[in-house]
């Protein structure tokens, strides 16, 4: 019952911020903890374990920072994941510590494009699961950087997985 309530609450929250451009991502951090700040480059107001499979709904990208709308532990839905401690009422995370993976588990070709438009030029093609760093979001398109490379392009959200514990299939 708690899981149903949790997912209902997450869905309602997603609808509430639906007018905004959002992307959902997971922690991808080499440090033991990941800091959450009250503004881009601001004061650290929370830290979460980088070993835990936290999933964040992110919006409002600004100079390498994402505003956190909500987050939860994908392995422990009963964990209290309230955002707290910010005097600004906002919570931010750096783009270098969040990621998404591709959903082409059947070896499908997925394309990174040079603009958020299906008719844009192809930047790169992948036929295996890869990790991306989200950089920007416009509607159903996310600008990503292939992890540990300089390859940057736009991909449709439907080809992204935000859960570090499953393959989203």
Verbal overview:
With 169 residues, this protein is mainly β. The protein has one helix spanning 2-16, and strands at residues 22-27, 33-37, 44-49, 54-62, 65-73, 92-94, 98-102, 110-113, 122-126, 131-138, 141-146, 152-156, 160-161. Helix content is 9%, strand content 43%. Mean pLDDT is 88; it is low at 1-19. The longest helix is centred in the first third of the chain and has 15 residues, at 2-16. The strands form three sheets. Strands 1, 4, 5, 6, 7, 10, 11, 12 and 13 form a nine-stranded antiparallel β-sheet that branches. It has one helix and 13 strands; from the N terminus they run H-E-E-E-E-E-E-E-E-E-E-E-E-E.
Note the main attributes of this structure.
169 residues, mainly beta, nine-stranded antiparallel β-sheet, two-stranded antiparallel ribbon, 1 helix, globular, disordered N terminus
């Amino acid at each position: 019952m708690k899981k149903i309530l949790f997912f209902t609450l997450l869905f309602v929250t997603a609808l509430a911020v639906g007018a905004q451009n959002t992307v959902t991502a997971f922690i991808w951090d080499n440090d033991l903890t990941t800091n959450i700040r009250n503004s881009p480059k601001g004061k650290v107001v929370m830290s979460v374990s980088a070993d835990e499979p936290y999933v964040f709904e992110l919006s409002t990208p600004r100079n390498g920072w994402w505003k956190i709308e909500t987050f939860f532990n994908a392995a422990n839905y009963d964990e209290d994941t309230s955002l707290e401690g910010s005097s600004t009422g906002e919570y931010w995370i750096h783009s270098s510590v969040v990621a998404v993976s591709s959903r082409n588990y059947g070896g499908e070709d997925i394309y990174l494009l040079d603009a958020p438009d299906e008719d844009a030029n192809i930047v790169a093609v992948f036929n295996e699961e890869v990790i991306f760093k989200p950089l920007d979001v416009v509607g159903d398109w996310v600008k990503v950087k292939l992890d540990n490379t300089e390859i940057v392009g736009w991909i449709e959200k439907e080809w992204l997985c935000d859960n570090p514990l499953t393959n989203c299939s």
